[in-house]
Amino acid sequence: MGLCGYSLLPVLLFLLSGVHDASSYNPSNCLLNDVQGTWVFQVFEGQGPKDNRINCSKLGSPKNKVVIHLRGLNVAEDHISSSGFFTIIHKKGFEVVLNDYKWFAFFKYEGNYRHWTVYCNETFPGWVHDVQGKNWACFTAKKSSDENIRISEARHGQETNSNTHEFGKPINRAQNSWTATGYEKSNVNQMMKRSCHSSFPRPKPVSMSQIMLHKAQTLPRSWDWRNVNGVNYVSPVRSHGNCYGSYAFASMAMLEARIRILTNNSQTPVLSTQQIFSCSEYSQGCEEGISYLTAGKYAQDFGIVEENCFPYLDGRATPCSPKNCPRYYVSEYHYVGGFYGACTEELMRLELVEHGPIVSLFEVYDDLPRHRKGIYHHKCNGGMFCNVKLINFEVLIIGYGTDEETGEDYWIVKDGLGTTWTETSGFFRVRRGTNECGIEGAAVAATPVPRL
Ligand SMILES: *[C@@H]1O[C@H](CO)[C@@H](O)[C@H](O)[C@H]1NC(C)=O
Ligand SMILES: *[C@@H]1O[C@H](CO)[C@@H](O)[C@H](O)[C@H]1NC(C)=O
Ligand SMILES: *[C@@H]1O[C@H](CO)[C@@H](O)[C@H](O)[C@H]1NC(C)=O
């Protein structure tokens, strides 16, 4: 343990717990082997029209049951077809695509910040529709009870004390364009295993094919979407204000850049992040969200209007009221490598150069706000917040390279924190090839459809 000062961990676990509504926090940490096995998906009618306006908070009358087997790393099958696909989504839910239907739900959990119980064998009501985006219904999924089942519990309340709030203050003082908040109250043991340098346990990368490896070796030694033969394809950095819903900013920034790339900069829309914060049931506003479900699933199911049709209101939980404007959809979205757990540094560079910027998780530690220049890597210096992750961030990766003097490999990251945060005008570099702060753990890509 040494330098890492674990004794403070239990107290810090609930960093700033009072700042936001704990009910919007999703504590799930379900893993691949929790999900592998046989599931029963019970379909319900839901309320309202059978399109994307369906309301699954009241399930309505039950319809058929579908039995689905999730096997191996990503295979979904039923008694008819074995050509299906599944992926876990950042340990919080899963998506299944089988027989031209797409199923998505979050794992069920209950409790409060003092004691969460996560049921990796059940889900909250989720959404199902065909791959054309039609024929919507609601469903709940239950793993058949003879499978091995893991219930994950996390208790933190006893260790927190009334001074908890104090711990956020130094962080907020260190910078002023974002606010530290509810620290991920995930599995304490996992946290304890974290070393100073390596990051949280990521899904084990799947070994890459020789073909892909060879392809990656032929990529340019450096790349920067701000300057490809003198042309910039990256949309301007935006300020978050008080909303740290970085997943939405990074997601929109990816779609914006990719639209520019696909149209040779003849279309340069700025997309509405407020629409995500106000409208998406696949995320929790400023509090929490996942790019796979934002740049990917939400954009595919609902489309995104431009900024001027639903201007940014500091991410406030205002009613979902975009103007009736044209929307940008995505035709496809995926975890780099095909599913959660398949990401590698080489595949990230391939996706980046061939298709455009990608979104990646990035864990923010207390030393990041103090980072000013050079290539960032998390340094555990024994300080109060040593090894304590402040928030889960998602960032846009726009390029990569190698430092000429030191030989250190890096990613170029658009942090979306606005221009006031660092002296880097919204861009900084992160060590590449070592899964620094989880950045190579689960990158996400999506393909937007430009206007005609
Ligand atoms: C869905 O239905 C519930 C219960 O009837 C209601 O409280 C909620 O506002 C509805 N949600 C939407 C988005 O209409
Ligand atoms: C999930 O596991 C818990 C604990 O074993 C059990 O109480 C619950 O009934 C299980 N759910 C299903 C759908 O089997
Ligand atoms: C892309 O745009 C640039 C600058 O306007 C132009 O010079 C170039 O010919 C365009 N490329 C294509 C393939 O249209």
TrEMBL record:
Signal peptide region: 1-24
Gene3D superfamilies: Cathepsin C, exclusion domain, Cysteine proteinases
Gene Ontology MF terms in the entry: cysteine-type endopeptidase activity
Pfam families associated with the record: CathepsinC_exc, Peptidase_C1
Domain Peptidase C1A papain C-terminal stretches: 219-447
GO CC annotations, alphabetized: extracellular space; lysosome
Tree of life domain: Eukaryota
Cofactor(s) in the UniProt record: chloride
Protein name, entry field: Dipeptidyl peptidase 1
Originating organism: Monodelphis domestica
